[in-house]
Amino acid sequence: MDNDILLISEKTQKAYLPYKYKDLQKIYKNSNNKYDSILDIIHDLYIIPLKNFKYPAFARFREGFKLYMHKNKKDKKPSFFKALDLALELMFKYSLNPIIITACRNLDELDIYLDCLEEKELSNFTCFEIKNEFI
Question: In the predicted model, is pLDDT for residue 23 greater than 80?
């Protein structure tokens, strides 16, 4: 079953990323027995400690770079310099929570989110739902 919710929990100090079941199956199939179950994949890859985002500017840079290099489906061979350019651009977007970058499955989702953020119309962002859980 798909999970279309990004939950940012101050209570557990973790971010629970959205995922598609077909992606979990693909990871499990190609993991060479690294994971014993789909649940192991979720715990390892889709639940992230909030301390990873302690320094937001650095986290935006890191997550933007990773998004471009590892999740970019448009370029067969991602460009280091294009990834660096994106990372630097995102680093200074102070209104952007770096966890959102991590939750995006591809550059298109990030672009949609950034457009919604710029227009102050986050309700129009439908790639995944964003929930915050406070203490």
Answer: yes
